[in-house]
């Protein structure tokens, strides 16, 4: 589901069995020992630690290691303040806070504390923009946090659908939003719907990535 690169240039990948492992060609992978989980997303923060969002096994913090040793992992669950054992999205903001998107809402991990925002519903996609705004994709629309204020955008504002599946910051400062009813681009305060190929199945876009000036999308059926 996710890749990340650490300061040494090593690539790590999520794992359905061990939560995560190191991607080394021709060498046994290094993951966890005795810890099992379904990894969803990886994030290396500015301090060098790696965070692992899991599908039902909480939030993992992997401490940096030297060489090929087994990393030490600290696990946070609902007993530690998480709104849900499932973490769907991770983001580090400019202040070093770690934001978590969960089925129980949006949470902020700051100074070793988890701050819940329980009135948002299912938060499944997060994206930070160059202007400092943070966007949260939810089952009930799209919410923007900027300058201490927040605003909810729905189909009435131009979104193709109400359920946001993926968010991506484009190469020219625009925001790409995939919903269950299509894809839109937010630019200069407006949503523009992206024409998609017609077919028997409505394309549902999940991963979105940028390569140079090109934006790539993958749908559920291909």
Write the layout of secondary structure elements.
Blueprint: E1 3-5, E2 11-15, E3 19-22, E4 39-44, E5 50-54, E6 59-62, E7 73-76, E8 89-92, E9 98-102, E10 105-110, E11 113-117, E12 123-128, E13 134-138, E14 141-146, E15 149-153, E16 164-169, E17 175-179, E18 182-187, E19 190-194, E20 205-211, E21 214-219
Antiparallel strand pairs: 1-2, 2-3, 4-5, 5-6, 6-7, 8-9, 9-10, 10-11, 12-13, 13-14, 14-15, 16-17, 17-18, 18-19, 20-21
Description:
- The chain is mainly beta.
- It is 0% helix and 49% strand.
- The chain has no helices and 21 strands.
- The strands form 6 sheets. It has a 4-stranded antiparallel beta sheet, with no helix packed on it. The chain has a 4-stranded antiparallel beta sheet with strand order 8-9-10-11, with no helix packed on it.
- Strand 9 and strand 10 form a beta hairpin.
- The radius of gyration is 18 Å and the shape is globular.
């Amino acid at each position: 589901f996710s890749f990340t690169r650490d300061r040494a240039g090593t690539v790590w990948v999520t794992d359905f069995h061990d939560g995560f492992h190191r991607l080394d060609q021709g060498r046994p992978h290094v993951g966890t020992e005795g810890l099992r989980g379904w990894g969803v997303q990886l994030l290396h923060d500015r301090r060098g630690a790696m965070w692992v969002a899991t599908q039902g096994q909480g939030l993992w913090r992997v401490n940096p290691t030297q060489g090929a040793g087994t990393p030490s992992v600290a696990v946070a669950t609902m007993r530690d303040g998480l709104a849900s054992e499932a973490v769907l999205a991770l983001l580090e903001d400019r202040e070093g806070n770690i934001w978590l998107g969960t089925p129980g809402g949006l949470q902020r991990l700051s100074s070793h504390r988890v701050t819940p925002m329980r009135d948002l519903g299912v938060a499944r996609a997060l994206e930070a923009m160059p202007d400092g705004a943070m966007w949260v994709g939810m089952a009930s629309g799209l919410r923007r946090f900027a300058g201490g204020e927040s605003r909810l955008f729905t189909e009435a504002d131009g979104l193709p659908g109400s359920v946001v599946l993926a968010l991506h910051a484009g190469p020219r400062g625009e925001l790409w939003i995939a919903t269950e009813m299509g894809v839109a681009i937010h630019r200069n305060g407006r949503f523009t719907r992206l024409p998609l190929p017609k077919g028997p199945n409505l394309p549902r876009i999940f991963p979105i990535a940028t390569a140079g000036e090109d934006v790539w999308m993958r749908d559920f059926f291909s």
